[in-house]
From TrEMBL:
Signal sequence segment: 1-32
Domain (Bulb-type lectin) ranges: 44-153, 155-266
Coiled coil: none
Organism domain of life: Bacteria
CDD domains per UniProt: B_lectin (cd00028)
Keywords on record: Signal
The species this protein was found in: Nonomuraea africana
InterPro entries assigned: Bulb-type_lectin_dom, Bulb-type_lectin_dom_sf
SUPFAM superfamilies per record: alpha-D-mannose-specific plant lectins
Protein name: Bulb-type lectin domain-containing protein
Length: 268
């Protein structure tokens, strides 16, 4: 698979249907009344800072192939034609609405104006969401056009409470390294320099459907389809810990206050 570029067209399509858990932080920004929100809706292929999608409203790619629709039943859905490629885990919340917040995260608010779900991209003022022309991957870019999040991958980190399902990955910011949750069960770190070379793996192959979880207790765990732990980094007891894929090719679990707890090159 090719690394992300500044255009969404360089990424491979993958579905994260309902796989993202609730992000750990929301901005808490108050939501204005619906009449006021209608002044900020845009009908284009980009959702900029402070712009909204209300129930039934959508963005459409330039060629018309891809759409991002804020469904009346609450979930935000990314379509290729009539096929859903990705959806937020907010179905069953009629009246929900989505906004690209000025501090950088995409947030879905319920009808009661409480946050339901968010991308882990706060702290990036001016970030924007862009529909692709061909790739089938929805991407949030920073103000200087660097990818921060996509519907198929995390960029740089896997936050606390988030999951990698088969076919999903965490990619280093420089695009060279990719931690992929494989279909056969193991999480593999790839180096794209000179080809696609595996440089590290969890010992969990042979368990199709397994997924990686950055648990809220701080432990990075690979579990099977019955939620049985197959392997872990043994970092429990550190609530808020998160996983990073660095530009140097290391997978590191950091504590909530950014202390290294575990590394793919040996315990820290």
């Amino acid at each position: 698979m090719r690394a992300f570029t500044k255009k969404a067209g360089a990424a491979a399509a993958a579905v994260m249907a309902g796989s993202l858990l609730l992000a750990t932080q929301f901005s808490g920004t108050a939501v204005a009344d619906t009449a006021a929100l209608t002044q900020k809706v845009v009908a284009k292929d980009l959702l900029g800072p402070g712009e909204w999608l209300l129930p039934g409203q959508s963005l459409t790619s330039g060629g018309g192939r891809f759409r991002l629709v804020q469904q009346h039943q609450g979930n935000l859905v990314f379509y290729d034609g009539t096929k859903a490629l990705w959806t937020s885990p907010t179905s069953g919340r009629p009246g929900a609405k989505a906004t690209m917040q000025k501090e950088g995260n995409l947030v879905i608010y319920g009808a009661d104006n409480k946050p339901l779900w968010s991308t882990p991209t706060a702290g990036n003022p001016g970030a924007y969401l862009k529909l692709p022309e061909q790739s089938g991957v929805l991407v949030i870019y920073s103000a200087d056009d660097e990818p921060l999040w996509s519907s198929s991958a995390y960029i740089g980190k896997l936050p606390s409470g988030h999951v990698l399902r088969p076919g999903q990955w965490v990619q280093s910011h420089n695009g060279r390294f990719k931690l992929m949750q494989q279909d056969e069960g193991n999480a593999v770190l790839y180096d794209s320099q000179g080809g696609q070379r595996a440089v590290w793996t969890t010992p969990t192959a042979g368990h199709p459907g397994a997924r990686s979880i950055m648990q809220r207790d701080g432990n990075w765990v690979v579990v099977d389809t019955n939620d049985k732990a197959l392997w872990s980094a043994k970092t429990a007891g550190n609530p808020g810990a998160w996983l990073a894929v660095g530009n140097d090719g290391q997978v590191i679990v950091y504590s909530g206050d950014n202390r290294p707890l575990w590394s793919s090159r040996g315990r820290k």
